[in-house]
Each structure stands twice: as structure tokens, then as C-alpha cells.
Amino acid sequence: MSVKIPSSFDFGIDLGVDLDISGIPTSYSIATKVEPLSMHLDLAPIEIKPIDFSLRVKEIPSVRVHLPLDYRVGLSVLGSELLCVRLCGQGQVITEPYAPNPCEARPAAVLQPQPDLQTLDRLVAELDRG
Questions:
Q1: pTM for this prediction
Q2: End-to-end Cα separation, the chain, in angstroms
Q3: What is the Cα 105 distance to its own chain's centre?
Q4: What is the structure's pLDDT at 105?
Q5: Can you say how many angstroms the Cα of residue 55 is from the centroid of all Cα atoms in its chain?
Q6: Is residue 74 a contact partner of residue 83, using CB atoms and an 8 Å limit?
Q7: pLDDT of the residue at 84
Q8: Is the pLDDT of residue 55 over 90?
Q9: Is residue 81 within 8 Å of residue 107, measured between CB atoms?
Q10: Looking at the domain assignment, is residue 77 inside a domain?
């Protein structure tokens, strides 16, 4: 690599004096020698063997998951809220045989057995006649 610099420079100053710089070397050279990096590594080829992997779910685990819910349904104009209804509660995902918790249990007097299909047909027929 070499760089060429002009041999004379002229500077003009408003004082009426001209400055002449001479004697500056005009040629510079920088020599670099870069040898390629060589490494002698003897690596055997990498072999990847296939793996047979399987995951099976024999049974869905028995869990009871509570999902808190909080919804806001509203009307706003230009970012100002005019009306808002807030719906909050709890949802559940139950994959275990259901048995009510103590807070979910109701007294037996409040529970009514579900009628069978014949009883339902009879009640609907009585309503149609009456």
C-alpha cells in the first residue's frame, strides 16, 4: 500500500504573506505480510443417528383448574368512557370425577331430581291440553 502526498502547499492569508511549505516527503509506503491461517485438524465426519421418541398420554390427569374472568364491555367516544358493564367471575375446567367442594355443596332439600323422559312427555301433553 502506498500513499502520495503533494510536494508543495500554498496558503493564502489576508495579511499579504504567502506561505510555501516544501520539503515534506511525498511518498510513504507500508508493507504488510499476511500469511493464511492454516490448521491441520483431522476430524472424523459427525454422524447423527435417528432417535425414536414417543410420548403417550394414557389418561387425562385429574385436575380442577379455576380461571378468573374479568370482562369489560362498554361504549366510549374519542377515548372517553360513556358506559361500561363489568362482568367478572370464575370459570372452571374439571377433569376429575366431580364432587362439589364444601363451598359448592347445596343442601339436599334444594336439589330436585331430574324427571325422566316419560314424565316430561306427560307434562308437555298436559300443558298442550290445558
A1: 0.27
A2: 112
A3: 40
A4: 67
A5: 26
A6: yes
A7: 92
A8: no
A9: no
A10: yes
**6 inside domain:** no
Task: Tell me the CB-side half-sphere exposure of residue 57, using CA atoms within 13 A.
Answer: 4
Best CA proximity match to 22, nearest among 11, 12, 31, 37? 11
Q: Does residue 67 lie within any of the structural domains?
A: yes
Interacting residues of 11 by C-beta distance below 8 A, sequence separation 6+: 18, 19, 21
Question: Rounded mean pLDDT of 74-100?
Answer: 87
97, 65 contact by CB (below 8 A): no
Report how many domains make up the chain.
1
Asked if residue 99 lies in contact with residue 66, where contact means CB atoms within 8 angstroms, the answer is no
Q: Which domain holds residue 75?
A: 62-87
Q: How many CB atoms lie within 10 A of CB 123?
A: 11
Using alpha carbons, select from 68, 69, 73 the residue that is nearest to residue 85. Answer: 73
